[in-house]
Amino acid sequence: MKAIAASGLERLSFSIGRVYYNYKLLLERTLRGLGLDRHVSAGMGHILFALFEEDDCIIREIARKTQLSFPTVTVMLRRMEGEGLVELRRDPDDGRAVRVTLSALGRSIEARCWKALDRLKAVLEKGMTRKEVDAAQRALARMVENMREDEEA
Predict the structure, then answer these.
(1) Would you say 58 and 14 are in contact if contact means Cβ atoms under 8 Å apart?
(2) pLDDT confidence bin for 28, thresholds 50/70/90
(3) Using CA atoms, how far apart are residues 44 and 49, in angstroms rounded to an integer?
(4) Tens of pLDDT along 81-108?
(5) What is the dihedral of CA 128, 125, 55, 96, to 10 degrees?
(6) pLDDT of the residue at 1
(7) CB contact set of 94 (below 8 Å; sequence gap of 6+)
């Protein structure tokens, strides 16, 4: 019986869970170390970096760029608006669409966000070859795609 339980904990889903929780702790430490924890929390990075690349987007475009669901992006944007990182307003050309722009605060933290990203990359890729990093990215992208397909089914 013990062998079954131990082998069960070695399945991919548990490995992903361990990676997730350890990543979240690393992210929280990194944000705290850079003084970003007062405004930024886990999950906001996708949206912040999408806006750093192209500000003043509609929510659907952000969801497409980040590969996050529309409801997930909407909920996160409300939190980010509450933190003063973004401003939301109706699109003047399409009253159904909502445009998102970085606030002055959101723009002011960009350099520190890039530092956080560099720190995460250094820790996550330590001891890995470029080939291993690329393979991990492909595998994770496939897993995300599988989960999205399952959600749509």
Answers:
(1) no
(2) very high
(3) 9
(4) 999 999 999 989 888 899 999 999 999 9
(5) 90
(6) 44
(7) 58
What is the domain partition of the chain in residue ranges? 2-152
CA distance 148 to 153: 9
E-assigned strand segments in 78-135:
86-90, 98-102
- Say which residues have a Cβ less than 8 Å from residue 127's Cβ, sequence separation at least 6: none
Cβ atoms of residues 45 and 120 within 8 Å: no
Q: Which of 110, 137, 138, 119 is nearest to 47 (CA)?
A: 110
Identify the CATH number of the domain defined by range 2-152.
Answer: 1.10.10.10
